[in-house]
Amino acid sequence: MTTRLSDVAARAGVSVKTVSNVINDYPHITSQTRAKVEAAIAALDYKPNVSARSLRKGRSDFIALAIPEMASPYFAELGAAVSRAAKKRGITVLIDQTEGESAAEKLVLDGMRGQLIDGIIFSPITTAPTRIGTAGTAKPLVLLGERPAGGTFDHVAVDSVKASFDATTHLVSIGRRRIAAIGVGGGAGTGAVRRKGYRKALKAAGLPHDPALELAGTGYHRPDGAASMRALLALPEPPDAVFCFNDLLALGALRTLADAGLSVPDDVAVVGFDDIEDGRYHSPSLTTISPDKEWLAENAVGLLLERISGNAEAARRDLSVPYTLEIRESTAG
Amino acid sequence: MTTRLSDVAARAGVSVKTVSNVINDYPHITSQTRAKVEAAIAALDYKPNVSARSLRKGRSDFIALAIPEMASPYFAELGAAVSRAAKKRGITVLIDQTEGESAAEKLVLDGMRGQLIDGIIFSPITTAPTRIGTAGTAKPLVLLGERPAGGTFDHVAVDSVKASFDATTHLVSIGRRRIAAIGVGGGAGTGAVRRKGYRKALKAAGLPHDPALELAGTGYHRPDGAASMRALLALPEPPDAVFCFNDLLALGALRTLADAGLSVPDDVAVVGFDDIEDGRYHSPSLTTISPDKEWLAENAVGLLLERISGNAEAARRDLSVPYTLEIRESTAG
DNA sequence: CTGGGGTTCTACAACGATTGACATGGCCTG
DNA sequence: CAGGCCATGTCAATCGTTGTAGAACCCCAG
């Protein structure tokens, strides 16, 4: 049925091992035999069996990418980028939706897919996995997003404090004085870090800090942003600008503003974070922090692969993703 | 390092075979031994080695989902749904971005991931794979979307002709007379089928068919929709409604309309297809054909699994995905 | 022409799980 | 008490690939 190594060997008139050697670029092979073998491989359309190879080598060239939900545009774009980066290096990505379950738990539960995968890129949305890898099973792991306090993993993320500072400062620079924040989360996650940058910017601008303008909300999707914006508009003194901690929140907020008949950016300016495609085409188009997702993916994969094939004990790395502030209609008149 | 079957056996005080029997639900086992074994499995956190199992059994419980690009919202949502449906049945989905390369080619190239995957769900955007599976390697394949002419695969899709008819008829019913279509593609793909429904509806309504109102465009993304809409507005007699063959096109079109200062739906009504989340929160929110994606995923996975484990020679199946027309602001004043 | 060193290739045993044939002993039934 | 079923154990083979060890060969120096 399936062609296997021995079929190729038979056809090429060499031993099974020689074929294997050809495939694995073993140095000492005559160009003659190499040619013979390659001809046989081509003729039979032979493809190595990954299961067998992985069983024998203990390495599969599969990595996992764990994200909260792939239907969320940011994560979809991230997944696409990681897949591309991995494919370029000949490895395959398994995308894992953690779906709100405590992701750390889930990974351990999954048992790393029965030892198939070589490592994992983990992108938690809020909770950070402090305890993964304490198990002996530990495979290499690269963490994306905010780093947990006592992290012991390689880590790739935007400097969220700085980026949030920039975003907020931009709002200040166009003359806004009552700047709200949507997406302020608890814990040590994204929300907290971005809030830090936001507050810092307010302080730097000499603006008062009004707790009523910090909206926690329950999630990071459009409805959450829409609801938070409604709450802000209901305030006795509504804001003249909003910094949303991700683009979905911002798009939800824009929707509320449109419904309320308010003009953006004239009445309320809005800034997001992530630069998802939806924001670029929305009207008004969304000003946002744009992390370089290709860079992120490229380096996350690179870091993980480095870990997998070699220096498992090298020092922990911490990479900062380049970003830009994309100024669009939601802040520029 | 890793716990294996024999470790479990040792701890439970039984033979390896018995442990294997427990795991594979062999019927004749005392509840006592079963309990012992299960305790040992839990204690050691044993996870069967997927590679070994797959090598031996010839089945991996992995399936692939091939989509053009996962960053596209419709496909992201589809991928999420398929992953969920598969996980429910204990199987894992590998998502494959075909990225515009002739997907058929690519699949064959990939050699089905070295025999790892048990089958594939294939969702081409335009070109239909007529020749896949002619190779002897053929694994079960379920096709999503428009069926190619001489298809020999199981197939799950919305009745696009009917849905397009409904969408267009809806525009007629709100009084529109010059209804354009964006996304008319060549070949036997999505574009052609939806155009058929569109034309049918025009004819049924006794409206003239103006070729100038059928825009082919180059792709299925926002920029394509925006460009097509610009072209339509440049006509001596612009349309008063547009049926876009997917939501991204529609969102692009809406953007152009907003830029042109036209009111939706008063000046131009817009209908999309797919019901992606962006459309629901856009302002105006987008009227669209909403296929039941969960149903689609559930049945595609079901069909594939049926094929994989059993009647490989059963008759070809053809499932029609339920859909609704979601009427929102872009057509309802 | 003989022996050492390198090259080129091969035989064999693993990797971990599953499966089949078969043996064993215990218990129940008739 | 014999025959049958049940629950398990033993043993060996198998899936396809690769690492280890070593065989066979060639070339060249002494």
Summarize the SSE layout with pairings.
2 copies of one chain form a homodimer.
Chain A: H1 5-12, H2 16-23, H3 31-44, H4 50-57, E1 62-67, H5 73-88, E2 92-97, H6 103-115, E3 119-122, E4 141-144, E5 154-157, H7 160-173, E6 179-182, H8 190-205, E7 214-215, H9 222-233, E8 241-244, H10 247-259, E9 269-273, H11 277-281, E10 287-291, H12 293-308, E11 318-320, E12 323-326
Parallel strand pairs in A: 1-2, 1-3, 3-4, 4-5, 5-11, 6-7, 6-8, 8-9, 9-10
Antiparallel strand pairs in A: 10-12
Chain B binds a DNA duplex (30 and 30 nucleotides) through residues 2, 4-6, 14-18, 20-21, 23-24, 28-30, 33, 48-49, 51-58, 115.
The CATH top-level class label of the largest domain in chain A:
Alpha Beta
Q: Helix and strand string of chain A, N-terminal first?
A: HHHHEHEHEEEHEHEHEHEHEHEE
CATH homologous superfamily caption of the largest domain in chain A: Response regulator
Placed side by side, the strands forming the largest sheet of chain A appear as 2-1-3-4-5-11
Number of helices of chain A: 12
Give the N-to-C terminal Cα separation of chain A.
66 Å
Shape verdict of chain A: elongated
Mean pLDDT of chain A: 88
Structural class of chain A, by secondary structure, is alpha/beta
Count of distinct structural domains of chain A: 3
Under the CATH scheme, which architecture of the largest domain in chain A would be assigned?
3-Layer(aba) Sandwich
Q: Oligomerization state of this entry?
A: homodimer
- Most extensive interface: pair and counts? A-B, 53 and 52 residues
Keywords (chains A, B): DNA-binding, Transcription, Transcription regulation
Protein name (chains A, B): LacI family transcriptional regulator
GO molecular function, one term (chains A, B): DNA-binding transcription factor activity
InterPro entries (chains A, B): HTH_LacI, LacI/GalR-like_sensor, Lambda_DNA-bd_dom_sf, Peripla_BP_I
